[in-house]
Amino acid sequence: MELAGGTDARIVVIPTAASQDHFPEDWSGLAPLIQAGAEDIQILHTRDRRKADTEAFAAPLAEATGVWIPGGRQWRLVDAYLDTRVHQALFELLERDGVVGGTSAGASILASYLVRGDPETNQVMVSPEYQVGFGLLSKTAVDQHLLARGREDDLWEVLDANPDLLGIGLDEGTALVVRQDHAEVIGVSQALFYDATEPPRYARSFASGAIYDLGTRTPVATAADEDASEEDRDGIQLGTRP
User: Fold this and answer.
1) What is the pTM of this model?
2) Torsion over CA: 150, 152, 156, 159 (sign)
3) Better-predicted residue by pLDDT, 48 or 241
4) Could you give the CA distance from residue 235 to residue 41 in angstroms, rounded to a whole number?
5) What is the pLDDT of residues 82-118, one digit of tens each?
6) Please, which residues have CB within 8 angstroms of residue 123's CB and are 6 or more apart in sequence?
7) Phi-psi category of 173—alpha, beta or left, where left has phi over 0 and alpha has psi -120 to 50?
C-alpha cells in the first residue's frame, strides 16, 4: 500500500490463481488490503486468455498504481495471462514507478522461471509444460512457504538444471521489496538466496532489514551492519552443495 501511494493508491487485484470462477466486490481476499487502508480496489479476473489480450479488459491496469496477485496455483495465471495484454501492462506499470506484488503463487509467478507449475500437484518443482513465469524478476526462480513447509532444499532441483538462475526462497510472513537490483527483506522470518553459478554452491538466509543485490548476488552493507558480526553481515550459509 505504501509503495502504491498509500490511501491514494489505485489497486488492481488479480485473483486468478484461486480455484473459484467468480470474485464478488466483497470477496474476502480483499480484506488485508482494505485493512491496510486501500480505498480504490478493482478485481481483474478471467480464464479466457483471448479476453485477457484485449485493451478493454486490461484497461484498469493503465490507471493502477499497484497490482496485487494472491495465492492459489500459478499455472492458472500462466494459462490466463502469459504473453497477453495483461502481462504487458504489468511491465508498463513498473515503468511508470508502480508496484506489482504477490503472495504464494502470486510471488512465484513474478519470476522468469516458474516453480511448482504442475497442474496436478504443487509438490513437483519442474513441470515440462509450465516453466515460464511473468519475468518481472529476470533470471530468477521464486519459491514460497519455504521454512514453514520444509522446502529449504527444493530449489536445488531447478538450479541443477538451470545454474544461471538465482534462486529466491521466501518464508511465510516475509517479503522482498525490490527496487532495481536491490531486494530488501521485510517481515518476521527469512528470505533465502541460492547461487549455483560457481562452486561451492550455497544458500544464504537473511532476516528483515538485510539488502541483497540480485545482479551481483551479494549482500549490500547497511548502517546496521557496522555493529554486526561477519556471519550476520554475510547471511547464514545453508545447504552448501559440492
Assistant:
1) 0.91
2) positive
3) 48
4) 38
5) 999 999 999 999 999 999 999 999 999 999 999 999 9
6) 116
7) left
pLDDT number for residue 226:
58
Q: Cα separation of 205 and 192, whole Å?
A: 4
In the prediction, which pLDDT does 237 show?
39
Say if residue 189 is exposed, middle or buried (CB neighbours under 10 Å; 0-12, 13-18, 19+). Answer: middle
Torsion-angle region of residue 116: left (phi > 0), alpha (psi -120 to 50) or beta?
left
Cα 222 from Cα 207, distance rounded (Å)? 13
Q: How would you classify the pairing of strands 191-195 and 218-220?
A: unpaired
Exposed/middle/buried for residue 105 (C-beta within 10 Å: 0-12, 13-18, 19+): buried
**Contact present, 115 and 103 (Cβ < 8 Å):** no
